[in-house]
Amino acid sequence: MLDPELHDLLSGFPLVTEVTAEMLPIMREQSATPVEPLLAGRPIRRQEVTATASDGTALPMTVLSPAEPAPGAACVYWLHGGGMILGDRFSQVDIPLEWVESLGVVVVTVDYRLAPEATGTTPVDDAYQGLLWVEKHADELGIDLSRLVIAGISAGGGLAAGVTLMARDLGGPAITAQLLACPMLDHRNNSPSSLQYAGRPGIWTHETNRFAWNAVLGKTPADQVSPYVSPALATDLSGLPTTYLDAGSAEVFRDEDVEYAHRIWAAGGQAELHVWAGGFHGFDAVFPEAALSVAARAARTRWLAGVLGG
């Protein structure tokens, strides 16, 4: 079911059927992303700042802007992937760095806390508090809040959806658009595509998804899981900003992402949905030079340019 080029690229790539607690520290160490090589030679300015979580914990954030920013720049608030158990604010940041260069946006990325050390609503609330920091400091960052986009990939896409719901329900900040790349939306892990990718090694499998959600939810009773954590639970998807969703056809999150787009349309909202034939989970982050990855990234950039007015 994989795109032939991606199938060949995966040959010899380390795949697992299920992440375990014993594997997690090693995987975190291996997945750490040094940002300096990504910035080398690019006309991008980096600024380190700190937001504050609801419980007073410091949340490191990085602002990435054009070296010569235009006044009133659009802002993309970026949330990284990793199943809410892996990664940091620089994970997959090569994706929004393309938008800094091509669209002149300011990108802000946050280190939300990870599970299992942080559970329940902590990751999504951290992400929301970071967005409130952006709103408060928009003038000094040269950001036009009328062009504020929230974006994320995988777990970051799910958190972006959750933060957008929070912003709608709590009265702000006003979000212009949300970009959800292969988002992790449903803790129930029981869709046909999730079950389809059980019992076999992969980038992100049914079993690994179960482990990650168990780490996030801890002992939370099933009837008390917040829709801000698992946005597929939200009963009302009206009043959301224009939305971009994508997924691969050969991944766990395919069906929950398609269903989320359908529900936005049913609620009267606008959504653009792409299902990339033969794409596995996060294919364009893992192999950005593959033809399918180039197409997926170009489609996102085209959409983002449109919602930001060119």
Overall average residue pLDDT: 96
- Helix amount: 25-40%
Q: What class do helices, strands and sheet pairing give?
A: alpha/beta
Spatial order of the strands forming the largest sheet:
1-2-4-3-5-6-7-8
Number of domains: 1
Look at the structure and name the CATH superfamily: Alpha/Beta hydrolase fold, catalytic domain
Helix-strand topology string: HHHEEEHEHHEHEHHEHEHH
What is the name of the CATH topology? Rossmann fold
Q: What profile does the largest beta sheet have? A: 8 strands, mixed
Q: Based on the coordinates given, report the CATH architecture.
A: 3-Layer(aba) Sandwich
Shape type:
globular
- Uncertain runs: none
- What share of residues are in beta strands? 15-25%
Describe the structure in your own words.
The protein has helices at about 5-10, 25-30, 35-40, 95-105, 120-135, 140, 155-170, 190-195, 205-215, 255-265, 285, 290-305, and strands spanning about 45-50, 60-65, 75-80, 105-110, 145-155, 175-180, 240-250, 270-275. The longest helix is centred in the C-terminal third of the chain and has 17 residues, at about 290-305. By secondary structure, the chain is an alpha/beta fold. The model has no long low-confidence stretch (mean pLDDT about 95). Strand 5, helix 7 and strand 6 (about 175-180) form a beta-alpha-beta unit.
